[in-house]
Fold this sequence. Notes:
CATH topology: TIM Barrel
CATH class: Alpha Beta
Largest sheet: 8 strands, parallel, barrel
Strand content: 15-25%
Order of helices and strands: EHEHEHEHEHEHEHEEEHH
Number of domains: 1
Radius of gyration: 16 Å
Distance between the termini: 13 Å
Helix content: 25-40%
CATH superfamily: Aldolase class I
Number of helices: 9
Mean pLDDT: 90
Strand order of the largest sheet: 1-2-3-4-5-6-7-8
CATH architecture: Alpha-Beta Barrel
Amino acid sequence: MWIKICGIKNQESARAVADLHPSAIGLNFYRKTPRCVDGDVAQTITRELDKSVEFVGLFVNHTLAEVISICDHTGIKTLQIHGDESEEFLASVLQQRPDLQLVRAFRIGDEGLQPIAKYLANCARLNVPIHRVLVDSHVKDQYGGTGQTVAWETVAHEYRYDTWPPLILAGGLTADNVAAAIQAVRPWGVDVSSGVESSTGVKDPEKVREFIANARAAFDKIGDGEEDSLRNEPRR
């Protein structure tokens, strides 16, 4: 069971969300999104909050130097690569910072999950370990936070749970549909951003609370407990 609340922009929101005990908090460094967080603010958040919360930095088509600089500045060790970055780019990141863990995000469109298979095969060829895979909806010129759902049946049917990294489901999740999504896809974790906001970029603590509660109940119902999440094994 792994639940991430993404798109935290300031210290007040970070504290409010952390008090609800998600598994992870996402800090978005993509400048073209209203959820972008300043590097200095991100550094303060990672220093102040309980270290039991995992901090995930979201990057979209940043340069290698920018990625390394932000990680060095904030102390973030888990990267969500959400843009058009090549497998070779990921290899370069790990050459400079082999301690980092990579979450590779894929925006799923009409072609289904075939791009994931190709990408992961190339990563294996380059000896680039992918810690987790995140699937999000494909909306032209947008990289997450769209509020659009993924085709759950396609993901459930095509994802290779036995051989691919643990699956994180994102895209249009809310407190109202997260239980159905978990039941349909059986992911290792879920990721939400716009679905727990009162307005664009503003997290609503009550929506966050309800989302976390409903997600946990759904994970428990399908038998995915804390012991499994700590082992970090893919689940079907």
